[in-house]
Amino acid sequence: MNIGLFGYGKMGKIIEKIALERGHIIGEIREEGEEFIGNAEVYIDFTMPSSVIENISKALEKKIPMVIGTTGWLSNLSVVQKMAESANVPIIYGGNFSLGVNLFWRCLTKMAEEFSVFSAEYDVFTHEFHHRFKKDSPSGTALTTAEIILQHFHAKQKIYSETLLERAITPEELHTTATRGGSVPGTHSVYFDSAFDTIEFTHTARSREGFALGAVLASEKIQKLPGGLHHFPDIFEKLFMEH
To answer: How do strand 228-231 and strand 173-180 relate by DSSP bridges?
Structure first.
């Protein structure tokens, strides 16, 4: 497969390495401000939130699918959805393309449903750690984790993500906090806590290569999808677990 890259930072270089190891070619590497050639079968975007809409527009003009791993642009989600549907081209986006994280989310769905039955006894909250260079907080992964809990642990109705809390948390608030420092690739934990015990469910990333592999695998499968915008956790089963 001919894969193009938007962005050539740390993630772009790792994606290139993994794609080449899997027998693909890198047809184009486009950094911000450079002319867009559009000679690839699919483009992977790990750039900046400010660049995403322009990159999508350029790819869709040439009817080329995209995999978007950039975070921080979801305020424009409805705009991108209309663009993808109008062009009838599939776009996959996600806050985290790690296979482990997506399996973590699938397991969390079941856990939240089970603990929701005992919400009078168990409270739930989350915390994440990332390296000191990460620009968004909470991370896209943390927000997706929180949204899964809201969907399946019915006592929680909204996310409260301020780390400084100068009052008691209300029962319907899911406290989602973050720490930034060091070189941590990413650690996400969910805690189900009662007066009797604590159940901790954690995913710890060892390197960025897991995220890059997931993005390349999504690129390999994107032709299975109809035109439009697709959230990676929602189509994970369709892409990898259906026979």
So the answer is: unpaired
- Whether 66 shows a pLDDT value over 80: the answer reads yes
Name the active-site residue from 17, 134, 152, 221: 134
**Catalytic annotation, pick one of 24, 58, 127, 130:** 130
Domains of the chain with CATH codes: 2-97+209-240 (3.40.50.720), 99-204 (3.30.360.10)
Q: What is the pLDDT of residue 140?
A: 84
Contacts 24+ apart (CB under 8 A), 178-181: 178/127, 178/128, 178/129, 178/130, 178/137, 178/138, 178/139, 178/142, 179/127, 179/128, 179/129, 179/130, 180/129, 180/130, 180/131, 180/132, 180/134, 180/137, 181/129, 181/131, 181/132
Residue 80 identity (one-letter amino acid): V
Average pLDDT for the chain: 95
Q: Is 130 assigned a catalytic role?
A: yes
Model confidence at 167, pLDDT cuts 50, 70, 90, reads: very high
pLDDT at 243 over 80: no
**Residue 63 annotated among the catalytic residues of the structure:** no
Q: What is the pLDDT of residue 44?
A: 98
